[in-house]
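Journal club side-thread
Mid-discussion, someone asked how the predicted structure for our own chain would compare to the paper's figures. Pasting it here so we can look after the session.
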Amino acid sequence: MDEGEDEQDDPANGDDKVAEDSQMDEGEDEQDDTAMEVDEEAEESQTGDSASGIHQDDMSIDDRYPAQQETEPTSAKGKGKRKNPEPEEDIVDPRRSTRLSNLPPPNYPPEKESRKRPKPVHQKHKQPPPVKGSSGVQTASEPHKSQVGDKEVHLLGQIQQPTLGNLDEKFSPFTDRKLLHSEELVFPDHLFKNTLKMKYKAYDTLPFQDIMNVLKMIKRTADSDGRAVQQGPTRRFPIHEVQAKEWNSSHLYPESRKQYLLHQNHILIRNCEPPDQSELGFNDSTFAEHIGDLNEMRTLHDSSVVPDRTQAGKIEPSLAHMPGTFVDIIQAAATPNGKILNCLDIPLSPDVFPPPRGIATDSVAGQFLKKSFYYCKRWALAATSFAVHTSHVDVSGFLTYVRVLVGAKYWIIGVPKRVEDLGNTSAFGKGYQLDMSNDQDWDIYGIILRPGDTFIMKPCTPHYVLTLENTLCQGGHFYSSQTFLETGFTIFHTIVAADYLTNKPDAESRTDIHIILEYVRKKIILFEPEYLALLQKAGSQKTDSGSHVIPHLPNFSILEDIVGFFMLHNIALLGPVLDYRLYSEYEAGTQDITESISPYQRDGYIQAKADALVIAEWVYSHFDISLTGKTTGGAGLRSLMEDWVVTQCKALILHKLNADSQMVKGETEAITPNRLRKAIEKQMAGLPWFVEKWPKWNNSKDIKSWTKDWSSDHMSYAWPSAPQDSHFVVKKLY
C-alpha cells in the first residue's frame, strides 16, 4: 500500500504497532509505515545505509502519533458542530466555522516505562584538609549524602530528575592540576567608556584563544560604529540602557514603550534594588537565602576535566558534568587549589525574581486565563571565577533576563545586521563559531554586569558568558508579544541543530505559547468591540514612543505585528512536528516516558492549532496586504501566509539535510529529514490549501532527489521580502 492508504488504515486507537526484527529498506518502509526497526543495527543506520540496507531514517512515526482530528475554527460570530474524523481525500475546508469547546479526546499510545540514563565519568583527586571557618558548610573530607531517585517525575511537566552517577563516590572540589593564565586582557563595556583588565585563568590554553578571538570581534564592531574612538555609536545601537527608577515609572516607560523598545533592542537596567538590604557575598548564607539548599545534589560543570573537542567545535560536556553541591562551589572558591566550577539552571520559585514589569506576555495571559505554568522558568547561576559558557542560544525562543547578586559577568552577544538574517537556515551554520569569531559579519558586543544590573536579552541571541569573579545570579525566561518572530526562528533552528546551538531541549515551554494563543483569541474574538477600539487608538503608523503598540496583543494595522503573530500561528499549526519528543521514541532502546508527549500536551497542541486558525480567519476578514511601488497588487494576505507556511516546512527539511551533511545533530538523533517530512504531512493533512501546495512525495528512496528542484528561496524561515523597489502595505477591510 502507499502512504495515502496507510493514512486511512492508521488505527483509531493509536496503539503501537512495532514489527519485531523487521528488515526493510526505504521502499518497503513506504509500503508499510507502521513497522519500526529497533534491532541492534538501528544505531548504525542512523548515519546512512547499513550493510543490510536498513534505513532508520524511514521508520514510521504514524503509529506513534496518530493523525490529529482536525477542529474547524470558530469565526467571530458563527457556531457549528465538531467534525468527525474523515479520510484524507474527504477533508472539509477548515475555514468553515465550528465550536472550539468539547474537543474529542484523542487516543494515544500507552506511556513507556522510564529508563535510567547513563552515568557520567568521575575523575578522582586527592582530598585536601577541611576548610575551616564556614559555619554549616560540609568539609572536604565528608562524603556527600543525597538521594536522587531514577523515577522521580513531576506529574504535569513529566521532567525526570537525572541520575547523577554513583552518589557514594566523593566528588572533590579541589584539583592538583595547575592553572595557566593568559596575558593581560581588556574587557570593555558596551559603550567602550569603561574597561576591566585582568589575566584570565584556565587549565589549558584553548579558552584563552577563544576569549582573545571574541574580544577582537568586539573591538572590530566598536571600530566600525565609532565607539572605540568615542565618536559613536554612529548607527542604531541595539542595547538600550535605562535607570531602574525610570524603567519603573509608568509615566516615562508605559507598557507600550517598553515593548516597542524590546522589539528593537536588548535592555540593560541599571541600579536595580537588591533583593536583600544586608551585604551579600559568595558564602553559605547568601547561597541558602537566595540560591538554594546547600547540600542538595546538583550538576556541576568541572573545568578541570578537559575533554577533546568535537568536529563541530563544541567541547563534549558529559565528562565534565559531575554531581556536587553548593558546598563544593563555596569550598572551591575559598581555596587556592579549588576547581573552576559552574552550576547552571538552578530552579527558583516563580516569586523569587519575576520578569521586569510590563513586558512578559505569557504572565499577562496566564493571569487573564487564571492559568499557572507547568514548569519552572526562574533559575539561578553559581560560578567560581574564570568559568566559561561558550556561545549558545537560549532554549525555546524565550527572552532571558538576568541580574547579578554577587560578582561580575561579561555577557557577550551577537547581533545580525537585520533581524531577518536570523531566519536563514545558514545563520548558525559553517560561519557560526562557539567563540563567536564568526564570518557572518554580525556585530558583537560585550556587557559588564555587576550587582544592581538587570539585562534583558531578546530571543535567538547567541551569547558567550565569562565569569570575571565568583558570581551568583538570578534570572528567568519569558515570552513577549513584540518578539514572536525571533521566538519562531529559535524553535525552527533548535529542532534541527540543538546539539551545539542551545544548552538543553525544552518542549514543555510550548504550553506557554498555547496559553498566549488562547489569550489572543479570547481578547480579539470574545471582546471584539474592545479590541477594535484598541486598534483605533493605536493607529496604523509606528511611533518612536511606541504608542502604536497594543500591550501584549498584535496591532494588525502594522505589518511587523502581522508577521510576528503569523510566526506564532505557523508554530501552532506545526505543533508536535517541532517537538523533539515526537521523534525521540525511535532512538534504539529508549523507553522513557519523559521523552514522550503526554495526552495533556497533545490536547494542548490540538487546541492551540484551532485557536491559531480562528484568529487567522478573523485577521483575513479584517485586513489584507498588497504591494506598492515598482510592483503593485500581489496575491493578498491569505495566500502570502499560506505560502509562508509551505516555505518554512521546505526550509525545515532542507535545513536538516544540510545539518546532517555537516554532522550537526538536532534535539534528538532520531530526527531525520524523512521523518520530518512524514510528520509535516500528517500534521497538516487537515488543511486542504496546504495539501494542494505541498509537493507530492515521489516514493523515491532518496529524499534529496525530492528536494533538488527547490529554489534557494526555501532556505529561510523569515517572512519573504517584497520585490525590489516595492514594499508591503496593510489595508483595513472593515
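Post-session note: The domain at 215-302+313-501 is CATH 2.60.120.650 (Jelly Rolls).
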